[in-house]
Amino acid sequence: MQTSQGRYIRFGKRGSSDFLIFLNGGRTIHLEVKNEKGRQTTTQLEYEIKVKQLGHQYNVVRSVDEVQTLLKNLEIMKPYKLK
């Protein structure tokens, strides 16, 4: 985020994804947003490895269409049933 003085404020841990989606059953999807030429930094690649080692999903997305397709394929819109 950019302040009115032109400085930038960072949120989250260095290298962490731009978006975090929480799913039923404790699963998560981490989304890193890049433009068509954007590349991950070293810290972002390290974060991706840790996320995947923990069994969660990590995706680099480059358009809204990619996000929509990803979410449709996950079937996350089904309501959560309490036990």
Give your account of this protein's structure:
- The chain has a domain at 19-74.
- It starts with 18 loop residues before the first strand and ends in a 9-residue tail after the last helix.
- The model has no long low-confidence stretch (mean pLDDT 88).
- Helices cover 28% and strands 18% of the residues.
- It is of the alpha+beta class and 83 residues long.
- The relative contact order is 0.18.
- It has helices at 42-53, 64-74; strands at 19-22, 28-33, 57-61.
- The chain has two helices and three strands.
- The chain is globular, with a radius of gyration of 15 Å.
- Strands 1-2-3 form a three-stranded mixed sheet.
- The longest helix is centred in the middle third of the chain and has 12 residues, at 42-53.
Rough outline: globular
Number of beta-strand segments:
3
* Widest β-sheet, arrangement of strands: 1-2-3
- What are the secondary-structure elements, in order, as H or E? EEHEH
* Rg over C-alpha atoms, rounded to the nearest angstrom: 15 Å
Number of helices: 2
The mean pLDDT is: 88
Give the amount of beta strand, in percent: 15-25%
Q: Biggest β-sheet, characterized? A: 3 strands, mixed
In helices, the fraction of residues equals 25-40%
State the secondary-structure class: alpha+beta
Quaternary structure annotation: single chain
Residue windows where pLDDT falls under 50 for at least 5 positions: none
Q: Kindly, what is the distance between the CA atoms of the first and last residues, rounded to a whole number of angstroms?
A: 41 Å
